[in-house]
Amino acid sequence: MLILGIDTSCDDTAASVVEDGARISSNIVSSQTEIHKKYGGIVPELASRRHLEMIWPVVEEALKASGAKLEDLSAIAVCHGPGLIGSLLVGCSFAKALCFSKNIPLVAVNHIEGHIFSSFLEEPRPEFPFISLIASGGHTSLYRVDGFGRYKELGRTRDDAAGEAYDKVSKLLGLGYPGGPEIDRLASEGDPEAIDFPRPYLPDSLDFS
Question: Region 146-164: what's the mean pLDDT?
Answer without folding.
Answer: 93
